[in-house]
Design brief:
The structure holds 2 protein chains of 2 kinds. Chain A is mainly beta. Helices cover 0% and strands 53% of the residues of chain A. Chain B is 0% helix and 45% strand. Classes of the chains: A mainly beta, B mainly beta.
Chain lengths: 122, 108
């Protein structure tokens, strides 16, 4: 059974870079026609898609974050990562990694990590 | 602002039927997916591809779509269905994911 697990530092200082890694277990990140995404959720608020990656290297980012976001993959470690630079308090949120099935008629996040809380504070 | 919109809150009496809706222009071309999120838990997928349920999702959950509106229906709502529900689709470019703002379902 495929599982996703986020790892993160927890606390990041303003203006610095937030770095998250998602480890995929129970299957290969390279198998199947799936994308790998990051989604975040500020406390008490809704879900916000951050961006996605296909293991070929193709990426798409939320236009509101595009200038600050990079998503990359390490297939040898079965991991994908998120870097968000120049963070502010507005980036404080629970960050989820998720597997995404993307077709021409629907888009669904079928497996999620448990989420990790990242706080931006000095 | 989200390009798909949901009512902030809906309530239903125990055992009754409730419909949660998601509206947006992209839904004329794409099917919404629906997620259930309980407090302090990650979301779980409950409906995708209009009316498909992942393994383990009870058959009281169903989906439908008409025009610019997608609906999630719970037939015979249970106490454990009390949660936040989110839909997702694409933005006007067709390249980026958007989530609805979420609907808080209260089971009375």
């Amino acid at each position: 059974q495929l599982q996703l697990q986020e790892s993160a530092p927890g606390l990041v200082k303003p203006s610095e870079t937030l770095s998250l890694t998602c480890t995929v277990s129970g299957g290969s990140i390279s198998s199947g026609s799936y994308y790998w995404s990051w989604i975040r959720q500020p406390a008490g608020k809704g879900l916000e898609w951050v961006g996605r990656l296909y293991t070929s290297g193709t990426t798409n980012y939320n236009p509101s974050l595009k200038s600050r976001v990079t998503i990359s993959v390490d297939t040898s470690k079965n991991q994908f990562s998120l870097k968000l630079n120049s963070v502010t308090a507005a980036d404080t949120a629970v960050y989820y990694c998720a597997r995404e099935k993307l077709t021409i008629v629907y888009d669904a996040f079928d497996i999620w990590g448990q989420g990790t809380m990242v706080t931006v504070s000095s | 602002s989200s390009e798909v919109t949901q009512d902030p809150a809906v309530s239903v009496a125990l055992g009754q039927t409730v419909r949660i809706t998601c509206q947006g222009d992209s839904l004329r071309s794409y099917y919404a997916s629906w997620y259930q999120q309980k407090p302090r838990q990650a979301p779980i997928l409950v409906i995708y591809n209009k009316n498909n349920r992942p393994s383990g999702i009870p058959d009281r959950f169903s989906g439908s779509s008409s025009g610019n509106t997608a609906s999630l229906t719970i037939t015979g709502a249970q106490a454990e269905d009390e949660a936040d529900y989110y839909c997702n689709s694409w933005d006007s470019s067709g390249n980026h994911v958007v989530f609805g703002g979420g609907t808080k379902l209260t089971v009375l």
